[in-house]
Amino acid sequence: MAKKLLLFLLIASCTSTNDVLPIEAESNTQTTTTEVFVEQSLTSQDILIEIFNAYQAFSDDPIKAVDTIWNYAHEDNKEATGPKERFATMLVSEPYDSIIDLKDYSYEIIFESEENIHYEVKVLTQNNNYFVITWVFQKTLCDEKPCWRTIGVSQPEYFDSGI
């Protein structure tokens, strides 16, 4: 079970630094979607915040939350935990389900090098339990540009209090 969690969390935060944002244009009889490319250079912190905000609002729009987490997954992790439908099932299963719809979170860098950044993330859950997770990013290439992707995530561990 711990291996599944680690693989899930590894996949959870990897995507290209060039995000495609769909823009819908409504006409009288049909709706069309146009893809617009937005050039973004996201830091590991930007990605971590985006992922945990997706967890925080998971029930508001589960499809969007899964897409956000899946899009930041490393390709190797997508291969190991995919397809996306299987990945989504993992998110709502133990132990990952403990952080869905979290109330609050905080984080700090506990290790940093040129190629890796480790964050300790403290989570306050809906049922007022506290968990700590180690989230690890690795620098890689996305569309021939440097980007950060989730390389590892520890299983949520219970702790007494405080975020």
Descriptive report:
The chain is α+β, with helices and mostly antiparallel strands and 163 residues long. Residues 1-39 have low confidence and may be disordered. It has one domain (2-12, 42-159): Nuclear Transport Factor 2, Chain: A (Roll), CATH 3.10.450. Helix 2 (44-56) packs antiparallel against helix 3. The radius of gyration is 16 Å and the shape is globular. A hairpin with a 5-residue loop joins strand 4 and strand 5 (130-142). The two termini are 26 Å apart. The strands form two sheets. Strands 3, 4, 5, 6 and 7 form a five-stranded antiparallel beta sheet that branches. It has a two-stranded antiparallel sheet with strand order 1-2. It has five helices and seven strands, in the order H-E-E-H-H-H-H-E-E-E-E-E. The protein has helices at 2-11, 44-56, 62-71, 75-81, 84-91, and strands spanning 18-26, 31-39, 104-112, 116-124, 130-142, 145-153, 157-159.
Give a short overview.
The protein is α+β, with helices and mostly antiparallel strands and 163 residues long. The protein is 29% helix and 37% strand.
Q: What is the rounded Rg?
A: 16 Å
The top level CATH class name:
Alpha Beta
Order of helices and strands: HEEHHHHEEEEE
Low-pLDDT stretches are 1-39
Strand content: 35-45%
Q: Mind describing the biggest β-sheet?
A: 5 strands, antiparallel
The portion of residues assigned to helices is 25-40%
**Tally of individual domains:** 1
Number of strands: 7
CATH topology category name? Nuclear Transport Factor 2, Chain: A
- List the total number of helices: 5
Task: Please identify the structural class as seen in this structure.
Answer: alpha+beta
